[in-house]
Amino acid sequence: MSKDKPIGIFDSGVGGTSIWKEIHHLLPLEHTIYLADSFNAPYGEKSSEEIVRLSIKNTEKLLEMGAKIIVVACNTATTNAITHLRTSYNIPFIGIEPAIKPAALQTRAKCIGILATKGTLSSNLFARASDLYSKDNKIVEVVGKGLVEKIEQGQKDARVVHDMLTELLEPMIQAGIDYLVLGCSHYPYLIPTLKKILPPHVQIIDSGMAVAKQTRVVLQSLDLLTSEKQQIPEFFTNGDPKILAEIIPAPLNSFKVNYLDF
Ligand code: DGL
Fold it and tell me: What are 191-245's pLDDT values in tens digits?
């Protein structure tokens, strides 16, 4: 495998760009290819079998494009499909899971909130992590129903999202959380709104930086880190390229976003 090949990244839609941003920041020499399966979003309400099928489809496309490693920038796809992907393909996979561990180790209130999709919260992988840390802590799990759809429509800052979050966070605030774990790669885009609703002492944790660091560790261990600047990042979506282009934060939003039927 050549070091100059791209890092392939996929998500059910535009949200995984929050992970892409961290990877691009940490590994600026690397060529990255981002696939947004927005046509099939949200994954969170689909069956585990369907999520595995879509994850295979995205993996095949990234392999066709020459990926040397695949980052599953979606908690729902990771918790439902990564075991299958790792046993089916001879390529390293990096996944993203809700960061329960750092929250559980740091909470003083012994009470943490997890906001994630139904698909993530109902997965076996998540249940194992949650069981491990719920012995010493109260864990308040809430399904972020409807949030991914709104972000996919380009409405992350809309008033209606503020109202939805106010209702969703209510049980967590009532329970007295001091940490909120964002268990979906779309949700970092809601942080400005979340901060308006949560009591100021509540810390928000997402897994973006941890995923980027893990990607670097794995590439390094396999001697697959590039040493020369590769071509600029590429973005592909089977949804609306405008919405994907608009969510990528400045000053990184000058890269071209292409429509691709996959
Ligand atoms: N970004 C995906 C995740 O991290 C969203 C899932 C969905 O499409 O419902 O879970």
Answer: 999 999 999 999 999 999 999 999 999 999 999 999 888 788 999 999 999 999 9
CB of 150 sitting under 6 A from ligand 1: no
Place of tokens 């809430």: 142
Q: Over the chain, what is the mean pLDDT?
A: 95
15 Cβ closer than 6 Å to some ligand 1 atom: yes
What DSSP designation does 187 have? G
| 90 CB-near residues (< 8 Å, 6+ apart) | none
Ligand 1 centroid distance, CA of 76 (Å):
5
Label residue 251 by pLDDT band (50, 70, 90).
confident
140 forms beta bridges with 113
20 is in which domain, residue-wise? 7-96+208-259
**What is the pTM (predicted TM-score) of this model?**
0.96
- Indicate if 86 and 213 belong to the same structural domain: yes
Q: Residue 153 Cα, ligand 1 centroid: separation in angstroms? A: 14
The Å distance, Cα 148 to ligand 1 centre, comes to 7
Question: Mind telling me the catalytic residues?
Answer: 74, 184
- For residue 71, give the nearest of 34, 31, 118 by alpha carbon: 34
Domain-ending residue, one of 205, 223, 238: 205
